[in-house]
Amino acid sequence: MFADLIGQEVAKKLLSSALAEDRLAQSLLFYGPDGVGKEMAAVELARAINCQGGEGGLFGDAPRPCGTCGSCRRIAAYQHPDFIYVFPVPHPAGESDKRALAEEVAEFLKEKAGAPHLQPRFDKAVSISIDDIRELQAKVSLQPYEGRRKIAVIAGADAMTAEAANAFLKTLEEPSPTTHFILVTDRPNFLLSTIVSRCQKLRFGHLAQAQVEAALRERHGVAPDEAKLLAEVSGGSLGRALEMMEQELLADRDAAWQLMAAAAAGRDADL
User: Fold this and answer.
1) C-alpha to C-alpha distance for 129 and 90, rounded to whole angstroms
2) Which range of residues forms the domain containing residue 160?
3) 220-269: per-residue pLDDT in tens?
4) Same-domain pairing of 139 and 22
């Protein structure tokens, strides 16, 4: 379990043990620096809980998650009916803007399924609103559709508005026995203390520079020299290193477009 999660040995050990002994807390808080695997661990845990591979006991005798059953694949694709993923988004007022946002979110989740480190980028202020929490409450009020449990991952949980946080607190106070909540945040101090107190807290720490460098080379095909440089300036965050790499690629692409445009116009590019 957690084979793709880099480092975080303490978190992996605690979660694996809780799963094996069927004593996983209903409400969990994964906190720590950005880009160190908190969301990946949350999704992996959701897959393990509802994995259909193996027999015997709640989690079976086979390694969980198997990664190949229908449940594992659909959770990884953000398409499982019992897996709820909430994250901060803009909240447009007009119906056309709402439809555009829904399409943008769907496209983002499709991309994130293939690149779990991706984070949404919006050009407007984002939050988790009271409407988002009410929609979550409606979903978790129902029995699991096909999985063992409903799992709600709330990424960027610190972005809940005050109204949303108070509404969510009521859900935590009377949780359904068939639901697990996994809150993910880089800023636990921005959460209501009453929410934090009702969660089992699990800290995720910075990665070692060598771990970031190896992951860039072995998992993302980055050249050794570039991987070393990115790891040095990443601050122990693989997500940050990948973001810097993507920004560099975008800058290179923009420069290439400028060169082509200049060539087409018969002049030198202003670089």
Assistant:
1) 9
2) 9-205
3) 888 898 889 899 888 999 988 988 887 765 454 455 445 545 555 665 54
4) yes
